[in-house]
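[SOLVED] Need 3D model of a two-part complex

Original post:
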Amino acid sequence: MPEYKAPVRDMQFVLHEVFNAESIWAKLGLDEVNRELADAILDEAAKISETLLSPLNRSGDEEGVSWNDTVVTTPKGYPEAFKELAEGGWGALAGDPEYGGQVIPKMLVLMFEEMSYGSNIALGLYLSLTSGAALAMANHASEELKQKYLPNMYAGKWAGSMCLTEAHAGTDLGMIRTKAEPQADGSYSITGNKIFITGGEHDLTENIIHLVLAKLPDAPAGSKGISLFLVPKFHVNDDGSLGERNGVSCGSVEHKMGIHASATCVLNFDDAKGYLVGEVNKGLMAMFTMMNYERLSVGVQGLGLAAASYNGALDYARERLQSRSPAGPQNADGPADPIIVHPDVRRMLLTQKAYVEAGRAFSVFVGQQLDTAKFGEGEEQVRAAGLVELLTPIAKAFLTDKGLECTVIGQQCFGGHGYVREWGMEQYVRDVRIAQIYEGTNGIQALDLMGRKVAANGGKNMAVLIQEMRDYAASATTAGMDEFTAPLKKACDSLESLTQDVLAAAKDDPHAVGAASVEYLNAAGYTIYAYMWARMAEVALQNSDDAFYSAKLHTARFYMTRLLPQLDAMAASVRAGSDVLMALPEEAF
Amino acid sequence: MPEYKAPVRDMQFVLHEVFNAESIWAKLGLDEVNRELADAILDEAAKISETLLSPLNRSGDEEGVSWNDTVVTTPKGYPEAFKELAEGGWGALAGDPEYGGQVIPKMLVLMFEEMSYGSNIALGLYLSLTSGAALAMANHASEELKQKYLPNMYAGKWAGSMCLTEAHAGTDLGMIRTKAEPQADGSYSITGNKIFITGGEHDLTENIIHLVLAKLPDAPAGSKGISLFLVPKFHVNDDGSLGERNGVSCGSVEHKMGIHASATCVLNFDDAKGYLVGEVNKGLMAMFTMMNYERLSVGVQGLGLAAASYNGALDYARERLQSRSPAGPQNADGPADPIIVHPDVRRMLLTQKAYVEAGRAFSVFVGQQLDTAKFGEGEEQVRAAGLVELLTPIAKAFLTDKGLECTVIGQQCFGGHGYVREWGMEQYVRDVRIAQIYEGTNGIQALDLMGRKVAANGGKNMAVLIQEMRDYAASATTAGMDEFTAPLKKACDSLESLTQDVLAAAKDDPHAVGAASVEYLNAAGYTIYAYMWARMAEVALQNSDDAFYSAKLHTARFYMTRLLPQLDAMAASVRAGSDVLMALPEEAF
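Solution:
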């Protein structure tokens, strides 16, 4: 397996040079966070990713988790590594400071996430599910629950899980059957079966705090009758010590394509004691706090694995000697040239590089909106919150789709060795594949974008985004920027007219939104990446003597000329309309 | 795992209705092969695929092959199944009749291959490697070798393998180090190490006949000094009985992403006795006979697994109840609608269907050229041979790229269940992935196409293909065909002008060919699929009352409007030229 190398320099470039994060943080009143602290965090995150997480990645894949009579055992080294992560404070980064959390901006937390996923997604998941559960609790749980549970979750002494899916209810959570019966003491008795619970059971922590969707006996049908409950694996006594086992147990673990070291559990709740989080029948809304957090985080999984795969492919392309350059020998003393001399190998590497670096900038852009929505004020805060809504499904789906594409390319660079487990490149493909599926499949993300985030408000937030990109293109007057702002402007025009066309079609056609959704999301993704590359190119143009910046400029050019044309294909596909999908009778498929 | 259902009706449609195969066979003098025989073969192939091969597919994946001190054991049931396949005569289909082969046209053999790969690629590989080795021998080996080995290979009593790759020499076979020392008895002593040898060792047959590339002591450097040798695992006595073990043994097997039941071996040759096949130093040419056969066959692996995945996804989409149609409940009595009501699920299914059915027609089109090149005469034969050269890399790469795309889509239709091994959809993804890599990576196929098959002859064979497609479009005057011939004509224009642009750029730019190659191959693939869909649409228009034909028409429309626009994106990418790939210094990546 390629050794994980954290792309710290590239992260600093995005954070400090492209986004000028320090000034954003100052403006948001996050005075304790500055460039120095950010760099220290990046360095420390790089160290644990490279030395603690990465060495366990392939062994964890080979060994996997094992299940025996409700007990789940993680691979060798995982409990110790998780403990070290927890003690390093990595579970508290974005937590509520009242309960032991740190106030680290999301823009920076995302980079830790990229590194932890890129070096060992399976292990990283246990931590990020815990952070996500803590986030939902911080926003919706009672003071009593927060005091009792949050400090140990932030400290990584206890882990968290989110329990939504049932065998017959995945996308359609309105169909869940898990029941919550009110008890005399104000708690609830939870009974039902959940599947696909990441980190639902394991041996990493002494307790696991499950957030569970269930229905009260008198709840309305469908998604408006769902409530959220906190169900600890072990009861917690008033003095904070652990009590007896609660009525929740692991019935089995799934055998999966990848993320073998992550326990994907069947959880059986049998008269388990649970505590209401948020309001009755408003559980889905409370859970969405967690899901939005997780969705961006899942996008970053696509980014992290793509970056790791690029890193491996690049090293291999520099070392593997095979055939000669079409321009004549470049390594005349060797038996053959390194394969990086071949145009098509460069095309593969540049495709990875262009998607990875734009993806990193994009995730930080979303992080900026999240931070502004959380710490900002007034109109700026409202605007950022609107952008978060709009951008979350794009980040989840586009980053993970590109994650698969990039890890497949990285594997391809290795030829036959890419297919052999020992080399590690195929694991990236298997591991990243889940990110397109869980937390709402990418098709569901596209529906969320096109339906709830665009059509439902007449494209208001999309108009804000397009305006920002146009304003940028108009204001970027550094010499040489035309090459990058011209395609960006054209992309904005395409995306705008595509948005209008779909909105118009949706007036009379109930299928217009669903028929357009996936390609529309892609069109938005390609446009946003053009925006990111234009911004990176501008910084590079101001520093073009240096090889690092010159590489940014070349990659921006590659993106605009060789990848952005996909936007037109997506737009053409959307404009084909819904009839071509709906006219075929179901039985004729 | 979805039960494999052989798409016999669709195969008959392509063979009899679209290509009118019976008339082609009659014209080629293959009088014994008619529609009745073809249908009987399809039915029998469907039966063994569904009842013999498919039931072993998932168990074979879970169990895998095992290696212990040179002995390779295949999964439970594999030796018996292979024996039954062999005894059914499936190894002799396209063999030389002088040695026990049958004269079944490639157009038909391909359909058996699609079924065997679609139901169990790992098991199918043992047979097709044997057929490929037999083909190379039938074309290049001495009469003595043919008489001694071919009958038992056709009968599946002995298997075959092709031994090319060495650890340091994959794409660049000129670098191989395996040595062949001439012996007094006219044989050669072969010494060296080969890797990635599919079926290099196993327990399916009593003997294995290896075709091995090696170099004579005085051979010229590079690819012009390679000779081909036949090296049996067990010596064969003059009476046909097996003698002692030869000096070849299996050093280990690879642990791979997929095709777990296929033994991918390290083979060590240590003073093994080998026999020259073909002429000294012309081994690569002889091996190409086998490789071209294998390359089309590998393309069909992409097709077969895509078709199997479509079949599974379609069943699931009809059964899985989740959410309601945007047009209101379609299954009002049930708790939710089947997911096939959703536009985006239909988009996924139609994408699979459009690629699979065009791919099947395309493979038969290539089969037609192979049959004409083999059995035809005069100009027609020469023209077909030229088209085979041109189409082989497209078939290998485009069919397998679409194979990955389609199996990923099929997995996606299953949501979380798609990621779980038990459901079988992820195995298709893992299994098909190798087909983009082996027998020359798809990048190498694209270079072969753009360099050797297009640029090297000024685009002559490509012009023949484009002319055929244009002639067809001009002659297809059935009412309603404009909808399909108009985009086909436009695609032909695009492909032609793209070809001319690349040829022009290649005059001064050594990197032009490599920079254009992959997208160019894709552009050709999309155009050819438009041709296939136009031909299928024409048959459908003449039978449009029936649901079967109406589905063809709908799918053709879907292809032209929603998938063919990719062609423009590919063309734009090619026209970006090579500078954008080559200008970045290697150290700046």
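Edit: The mean pLDDT of chain B is 97.
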